[in-house]
């Protein structure tokens, strides 16, 4: 119990030292800038995949307040209608814009680990773009699992002669894709974003915290907005944007605290090995 208390105290000191709440506000701004370019990339890939725009929104709808969904659906429809012909031509520029949030996370994690960014601007932004592309790929896999999950389960069932119970378990597990995909995305960020050589095992604690914390905080915020928070009455027509920014701010805090947990555990590991 004493160790947990000591860890919590040191974690709070690191959060205060690295100005996590201030950095989270910066990340919220980058998330907003990156949101629509990232969604445009996803939408532009739909003609080549057996999924629809509604499938993409369905996953976001599980966590986001309904006011955010209305904002996203209305604005994205307008953007894709006007610029649909340019999506394939400007894909690199779109990815460059979408990677702004990842680039901000990389700088924040470097601060958490007390390391200096030695990678050049082009290399660092290239890594940010690759991480963005990886996130898109993993997100698409999450969308495809519910679509093809049953066919995959039937194939395994027939190939190995498994029982009917396996199909029941498989059908339940494949719908847990969203939390798993969130965990994979966070793990990738915590592993590759800092300018520091890390092992995949060392990022698991922060990834677990971020996954559970983000899901719980998103549900709690969605419930609060739906039942108590009347942002439209206070902010008028921009109430949806305010809600979106607060959600992004909470997301930034969760991501940063997860990174601080990993950085502090890495510090403990170095002290123990010396």
UniProtKB/TrEMBL annotation:
InterPro entries recorded: Virul_fac_BrkB (IPR017039)
Membrane topology: Multi-pass membrane protein
Keyword NAD: no
Pfam family, one: Virul_fac_BrkB
Domain of life according to the entry: Bacteria
Organism: Cytobacillus kochii
Localization per record: Cell membrane
One Gene Ontology CC term in the entry: plasma membrane
Keyword Transferase set for record: no
Protein name per UniProt: Ribonuclease
UniProt keyword annotations, A-Z: Cell membrane, Membrane, Transmembrane, Transmembrane helix
UniProt main location, coarse: membrane
Transmembrane segments: 20-46, 85-106, 127-149, 169-192, 204-225, 237-265
